[in-house]
Amino acid sequence: MSKYICQHRPPNKQITTYLFGYEVDNPSSDYLQYKIFNEPYSGIVNETYYTRNLKFAKNFFRENLTAHYESEGMDRLH
Question: Global pTM?
Answer without folding.
Answer: 0.65
